[in-house]
């Protein structure tokens, strides 16, 4: 304590008090501590994932296996307008307000107890935006007195939580080159961290960290090997922050310049290791015969040091991808107890390619890998020693240049389909059961390669495809996955593909939604269905729960859409009876 020496320390004390008023954790503002503690504090939900580690577990237990049958709606609010389509957003709750994003880059602030709309923002979108997979948004971020979200024309905007007044606006990239923003940003020690969509257009994936209070860039990190990262000073200076990897080490010729590896889904952040875990999309183009090599850092989990923006480690789930197996699935921190009984600070990932991976989250070392879907054609297994897949060579789509007319390579049937064993819908982990709850899908595709040349702003695939169901009675399947044994503890089949996320609770429950419109509660241990509610449109978003003045509340967004109706081939036809919508529902226990 140095308070009693001269005049300066008093100034210091005054500054501390001002900063407490502005950024303290007491009430109106969201502090760094609020964000780091989000998983444990039940009175608010201030991050995507109910905690930056992404477990989507709430310790709340008032709604439990015994009481859940008394769960009733409190209010519902429509997003209104003619703009519906897919609603993939996770709401946030803070200081009596709910902040929820909607399709077409809209943001709503709602009184959490009454459902009264406080303000809304509708982004004016230009013609010619190119979101690959519907006009979705997965949620906002909260920091200080701000609510921040990304738009389909690749801008990042920050508003005052109380008034909806725009505080800052930054262009992340050119929408005309295929860029868009759809993920919920993550706040890491005062930085707002986001990625970029556009891998289907050859856009280079990257991670950006900005000062959350001003929107000014702090560092960037490209996710294609060979590209330079940068650091930015408060004075606007820009300095080189090192090349990602080694140019041409995993890419031939100039292909790394349009290499894809988009960073379009939500990230997680682990304070134990100070690492941001970023999932990366497919290498571009899809036709793998044009780009021999591993094509780093596509289809990977990339761990980035939050302070320096440097890559600490990477783990590539699908080296030299030929199936559009974007490795964007969230990497969820948890304590893994190996068969030797030792606990490892690990992370789990249910990859689009159909395998579930457990890695040491400090160094990226593979600890376990096993299928979480029934049919995988592209690889027979993952070699636990080398960490690499054992490919089934004949199940890679053929090289078009080997065909007689050099126009269409040999078509193969692949499973999973490119929409994946799991897609954007986030899983949950319960420390009580030790199980991951994975909204999975069983489907396949006919896929073939074609010649393709890069053209800015045009689809850069070099592939054709048709998605097909594998079973008559279901595509979706909610699975409880044991990360130690690799076994499925239980499963619940669902006719339509599952596209919403999961929530696990201290009440021994797992909540998830279905495209058929139901929000369901099931027993986390047995998978027994205990409660369901029809929300009026398909649920393709993850539920949340929190404590409001001593009562446990639950919320989920409803509104069918996303990639399935747009890209689903035969599956899209099979589920074309589903209706669009756009609303948020809130529930609590009925008072008898
Ligand atoms: Ca919280
Ligand atoms: Ca992709």
Determine the CATH topology of the largest domain.
Methanol Dehydrogenase, Chain A
Structural class assignment: mainly beta
Fourth-level CATH superfamily of the largest domain: Quinoprotein alcohol dehydrogenase-like superfamily
Largest sheet: 6 strands, antiparallel
Alpha carbon gyration radius: 23 Å
Cofactors and ligands = calcium ion
Poorly predicted ranges:
1-26
How would you write the strand order of the largest sheet?
11-12-13-14-15-16
Which word captures the global form? globular
The helicity comes to under 10%
Note down, in words, how this protein is organized:
The chain has 2 domains: 30 residues, no CATH class; 559 residues, Quinoprotein alcohol dehydrogenase-like superfamily (Methanol Dehydrogenase, Chain A, 8 Propeller). With 592 residues, the chain is mainly beta. It is globular. Helix content is 5%, strand content 36%. Bound molecules: calcium ion (2 copies).
Break the fold down into its secondary structure elements and pairings.
Layout: H1 8-23, H2 32-36, E1 57-58, E2 71-78, E3 92-94, E4 97-102, E5 106-111, E6 117-122, E7 141-143, E8 146-150, E9 155-160, E10 166-171, E11 186-188, E12 191-194, E13 206-211, E14 217-222, E15 228-232, E16 238-243, E17 268-270, E18 275-279, E19 300-305, E20 311-316, E21 332-337, E22 343-350, E23 355-360, E24 366-371, E25 379-382, E26 389-391, E27 412-414, E28 428-430, E29 435-441, E30 443-449, E31 463-469, E32 476-481, E33 488-494, E34 502-505, E35 509-513, E36 518-523, E37 529-534, E38 544-548, E39 551-558, H3 563-567, H4 570-574, E40 583-589
